[in-house]
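debug: dumping io for the single-chain case to check the tokenizer round-trip. Nothing else runs in this session.
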Amino acid sequence: MEFRNRTATFSAVALLTAGLLVGTAAPAQAVLDGCTFTQVSNGYMYSKCTTGSGEQRLVVGYVDRTGGPRRLAEGSWVGVNQESSVGFSGTFLYWWIEKRG
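debug: decoded output
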């Protein structure tokens, strides 16, 4: 009889623990997707993501007009279907889109 009580107690604790772990799992989130980059003119660019959730911003690497060191220009963090724009004065080198959330 004692064996059955211990088995029942062990099973109940295992089920309770499993339920707590599942109940505290973070919800799945759709990462931003459908992101595009557009160069409007030399010195002005923007990015936009059309699906998912979270925020994105455009980051551009460039060399200023004096030929100084490489610099970064960062757009503001924006949500889905919004544009993160960057303006700079210099020679464009590279870009990327950062995502969060």
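debug: round-trip ok. DSSP finds one helix and six strands in the chain.
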